């Protein structure tokens, strides 16, 4: 009997090996975009120790592949300058997979919460016009289906689609407008991967290793209350919707999130910085990471929104980051501004200038706090990106200064020699200054290109 069972399992094992087929993760499909001029990974599964070949048409080359005893395989192939369409053929003993209409260009991962997820179908400005004119054959779209997991996964659910009047309305509007601008300047294919989830906090997008290294972030996370739209369980969305993509070569990340971290606003710079750093480590790539500063809104508390905005400003200390200010693209009654065009455009302009060395003569930031000097009963504030500093009203509003006790008072502000000078009759010896600090504060300080100054508080 034992001999029969042994023979049975041996035969079953042999049949399994013979019938093993090449399998690809869903991020590889027809119409996809691969990162240009890079060593990109092609990977997947087959039988243990399976041998097969991969043909890439852009260089008319064939490489041989052999899986490990874990049934996984991963090879790197060099991609050329932007172009296409190309074909990739995976040729095995039991099956053959042909990927067609593959483009080589720039790939951007787009993540965050509902303002990133927000589509034309969810209502945007000039909705009908934008949809009718959304035929861009060399912009490709991949939407990651919402999933959670307790441990990092190796596949996501989704497929690549060509940008058209049928596909664009269901895709991230901010990401689409970003791609449209970048493509208009560079004339290359753009691939967008939308992995976002409305109402999600930063902690769910951050790997568990960060919390193991920083237990204070676990304590901070406890301040976030559950909601009806998404889990708040840390790392679970990262495990299912980011980790499976980390072998897929990308050019950079766009991020639109922060509204759901107003409950633990004081720690946002730390969790955000650690999240960005961990993603870069997972991809082994210090790619550009560009994000949107949250807009003024009635977040529930008087100052939480302002604190997050300042924490986002401070995150610019991390290398190769950029922030699009949106205090002028908002309504404090609606957390979802419908003007997604300007948000995408501002992100694109940052990418074009900082990453692609384009638009070098164009200002892409609003004024950013640089330094504060106390002179008697006044504070003199220096900004960067301050050319043509101005207000759109008679008075510059929303500046406050504090006294020795840490009490804050409304300050009068005036422009002098390209700097802002603030003072208050109630404060004889000022210690600090802040601007647009309330959650609903919409500032009125701009530079010459009309970009708004960021919320800030001096050290």
UniProtKB/TrEMBL annotation:
Stored SUPFAM superfamilies: SGNH hydrolase (SSF52266)
Position of the signal peptide: 1-20
Ranges in coiled-coil conformation: none
Keywords: Hydrolase, Signal
GO molecular function: sialate O-acetylesterase activity
UniProt domain Sialate O-acetylesterase: residue ranges: 106-350
Xref: Pfam families: SASA (PF03629)
One GO term of the biological process aspect: carbohydrate metabolic process
Protein known as: Sialate O-acetylesterase
Organism: Maribacter arcticus
């Amino acid at each position: 009997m034992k001999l029969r069972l042994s023979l049975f399992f041996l035969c079953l094992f042999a049949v399994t090996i013979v019938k093993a087929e090449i399998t690809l993760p869903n991020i590889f499909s027809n119409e996809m975009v691969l990162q240009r001029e890079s060593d990109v990974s092609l990977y997947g599964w087959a039988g243990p120790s399976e041998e097969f070949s991969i043909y890439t048409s852009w260089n008319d080359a064939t490489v041989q592949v052999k899986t490990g005893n874990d049934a996984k395989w991963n090879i790197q192939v060099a991609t050329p300058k932007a172009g296409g369409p190309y074909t990739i053929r995976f040729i095995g003993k039991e099956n053959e997979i042909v990927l067609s209409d593959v483009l080589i260009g720039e790939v951007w991962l787009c993540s965050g919460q509902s303002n990133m997820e927000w589509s034309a179908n969810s209502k945007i400005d000039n909705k009908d016009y934008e949809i009718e004119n959304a035929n861009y054959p060399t912009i490709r779209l991949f939407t990651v289906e919402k999933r959670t997991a307790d441990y990092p996964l190796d596949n996501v659910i989704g497929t690549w689609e060509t940008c058209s009047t049928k596909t664009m309305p269901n895709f991230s509007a901010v990401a689409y407008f970003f791609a449209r601008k970048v493509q208009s300047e560079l004339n290359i294919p753009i691939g967008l991967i939308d992995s976002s989830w409305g109402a999600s906090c930063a902690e769910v997008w951050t790997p568990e290793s960060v919390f193991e290294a920083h237990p204070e972030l676990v304590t901070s996370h406890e301040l976030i209350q559950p909601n009806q739209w998404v889990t708040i369980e840390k790392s679970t969305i990262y495990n299912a919707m980011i980790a499976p993509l980390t072998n897929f070569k990308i050019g950079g990340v766009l991020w639109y999130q922060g509204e759901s971290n107003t409950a633990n606003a004081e720690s946002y710079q730390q969790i955000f910085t650690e999240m960005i750093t961990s993603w870069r480590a997972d991809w082994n790539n210090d790619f550009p990471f560009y994000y949107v500063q949250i807009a003024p809104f009635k977040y529930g508390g008087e100052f939480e929104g302002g604190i997050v905005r300042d924490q986002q400003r401070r995150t610019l200390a991390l290398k190769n980051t950029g922030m699009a200010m949106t205090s002028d693209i908002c309504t404090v009654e609606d957390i979802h501004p419908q003007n997604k065009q300007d948000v995408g455009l501002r992100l694109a302009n940052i990418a074009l200038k900082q990453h692609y060395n384009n638009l070098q003569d164009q200002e892409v930031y609003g004024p950013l706090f640089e330094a504060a000097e106390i002179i008697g009963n006044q504070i003199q504030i220096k900004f960067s990106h301050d050319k043509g500093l101005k207000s759109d009203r008679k008075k510059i509003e929303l500046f406050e200064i504090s006294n020795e006790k840490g009490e804050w008072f409304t300050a009068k502000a005036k422009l002098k020699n390209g700097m802002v000078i603030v003072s208050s009759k109630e404060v004889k010896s000022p210690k600090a200054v802040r601007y647009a600090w309330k959650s609903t504060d919409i500032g009125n300080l701009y530079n010459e290109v009309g970009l708004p100054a960021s919320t800030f508080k001096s050290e």
